[in-house]
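Protein in question kept underneath.
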Amino acid sequence: MKIVKLLVLACCALLIALPLGSTLAQTPTPNTYGILTSTPQADGAIYHVVQAGENLWVISNAYGIPGSEIMVLNGNSPEAEEVYIGQVLLIRRANTPTPTSNVTPTPIPTTPQPTVFVPSRTPIPTKTPLPTPTPTQPPSTAQILFGDSQKVGLTMAAISLVGLVLVITFGFLKKPR
């Protein structure tokens, strides 16, 4: 029984120390839905063929644009959500090429002119005062402890898990007398 108590205490200490000491880097992962996104065509347009198991929400998240925008591009109502297997969806329209002029302007020769001296309006140059640093108070203990909501949430989840393990271990596994 002493081994079980030591094991439970070691698990509790590990679960409490893990969320407080680690910072989880959250990097956005594009397209975690298993969809093969289409590459743009030569004119810049993107078309997507709906496969089995795909819906508008998953497709819109994979391409990073709202589903209502996809539906409007395809001539549907923005509130529509139905897509069908084999349906070709327009995700992005083709880029319109901008016309460029092939005419090069003929440079106009300039005649050198004498530089005219214009006196400044300010008779004596003035100095602009430099900004002074503003003192900032260090964060309080409460701001340090509860400022990161992710750490607070993970800590609360760990404490709840420890409580659940303790209830299961000592509440249900009592030896009958």
About this structure: The first helix runs from residue 2 to 21. Confidence is low (pLDDT under 50) at residues 20-29. The helical segments are 2-21, 56-63, 67-73, 141-146, 149-172.
